[in-house]
Design a protein that fits this description.
alpha+beta; Rossmann fold; Dna Ligase, domain 1; D-amino Acid Aminotransferase, Chain A, domain 1; 3 domains; 4-stranded parallel beta sheet; 12 helices; 25% strand
Length: 404
């Protein structure tokens, strides 16, 4: 990269995240610009790595896309933009629209739908022969009646463009569904109805370079994230035993999913469920971003890789030079996170040598542990879960109000 003409990386972040991505871009000699919400202007951004920050007026983190296009187009009159990167799930479509408008290389509108739209990704996966829970678009009422007659409840009704468990409702019988649909009004077509499959939930976090998965780590959640979000509880996840039958099956399925969705380069967080009744794995959803809920620290503890930093390197290279994966460790790691009744929880009583990372966030508490032993990780998470309930645990209901 020429020092006289460094690459300009435009980062979109409607939530506070991606600091290490921006730091790595600056370490690589890039000019780094951040576009973020006015409401989080004073967040702990890595300002030493930023050449400028542009604020977008927002209402609950929602941006007017036209305003963004106008603003960035104005910036582009004097500053050539080489890369546009969405650091949060909610920014993927905006980044794609900007790339299309400015003709900046990278993921466009069509591919972005596969990583944001829960209906689009399910249709694409099913067409590629990947197992998915039975689903129907909340659109045509005759089709919905046919689905309900064929697929016994319970079902889940999910917003197509939300992240995590926001807006998901469980429907236990026929007469519960229609009032929910009626209440949605003109928003009905922005939802998908899906068979509820009880079982264990897994996630595979990947690095992709030129359509090749160069790194992927499979992990298993403790309590299902949707249940934690809606019912309250302590969130945990841990590395699966490498080479186990389930781990190999998930790695293979993850490769199928990312090929079907057309991810050329970057990172992905993809979720699967193993049905309790039939023992089969099903694809749930994928994304073109680093996993949230501090999963990046979990992956770093197990592998030694920071997925934000590796993603930055891949975006900068963009296939013009080969990406070289750093040395990968093969440790095991576990993550535990909870809301806390204390404003700033004190974890100093947790002294185990396996502790790799401690969360520092108001009314939250969390730890990541690392060990060469999978059994030790399980033992620590089991112990910490009981201690967290006693020492810190608090809960509040998840808003089912959609963000977009």
């Amino acid at each position: 990269m020429s020092q006289s003409n460094p690459l300009a990386i435009l980062c979109l972040a409607s939530y506070e995240k991606g600091a290490e991505f921006m730091r790595e871009c600056k370490r690589q000699g890039c000019r780094v610009f951040l576009v973020t919400s006015q409401s989080i202007a004073n967040a702990d951004w890595p300002r030493e790595s930023l050449d400028d920050v542009f604020l977008i007026p927002d209402n609950e983190k929602k941006w007017n896309r036209t305003d963004v296009i106008y603003g960035i187009s104005y910036l582009a009159r004097k500053q050539k933009i080489d890369r546009i990167v969405a650091l949060d799930d909610f920014d993927v479509e905006t980044a794609a629209a900007l790339r299309e408008h400015l003709r900046v290389p990278g993921m466009g509108d069509t591919t972005a739908r596969y990583f944001r739209d829960k209906l689009a990704m399910r249709v694409q996966a099913k067409d590629a022969g990947i197992s998915v829970p039975e689903f129907a678009h909340v659109l045509n009422y005759d089709s919905l009646r046919e689905f309900m007659a064929r697929v016994p409840p319970p079902w889940l009704i999910k917003p197509r463009f939300e992240a995590s468990a926001t807006g998901i409702k469980k429907i236990n019988k026929d007469d519960e569904l229609w009032p929910v649909i009626d209440k949605l009004g003109d928003q009905q077509s922005f939802y998908v109805l899906e068979k509820y499959v009880p079982g264990d939930i897994y996630h595979v976090d990947s690095i992709v370079s030129e359509r090749q998965i160069v790194f992927a780590l499979a992990n298993q959640y403790g309590y299902p994230p949707m249940d934690v979000a809606h019912q309250g509880g302590i969130f945990t996840t841990r590395t699966m035993i490498r080479g186990s039958e389930d781990e190999q099956a998930l790695q293979a399925m993850n490769a199928q999913v990312l090929k079907a969705m057309g991810l050329v380069r970057g990172v992905s967080h993809t979720e699967f469920i193993k049905g309790k009744e039939d023992g089969k794995f099903y694809f749930l959803e994928t994304s073109a971003r680093v996993g949230g809920a501090n999963i990046v620290e979990l992956n770093e503890a197990a592998s030694g890789l920071n997925l934000w930093a590796e993603w930055a390197k891949i975006e900068i290279l963009r296939g013009e030079k080969p990406y070289v994966l750093p040395k990968v460790n093969e440790d095991y790691a576990g993550l535990i996170v909870s809301l806390a009744r204390q404003e700033y929880p004190d974890t100093s009583a947790y002294k185990e040598e396996e502790i790799f990372w401690r969360m520092k966030k108001r009314h939250h508490v969390g730890l990541v542990v690392r060990s060469a032993s999978s059994e030790r990780i399980k033992e620590l998470l089991d112990s910490y879960t009981q201690r967290f309930y006693k020492d810190f645990f608090a809960t509040q209901p998840l808003s089912d109000k959609p963000n977009s």
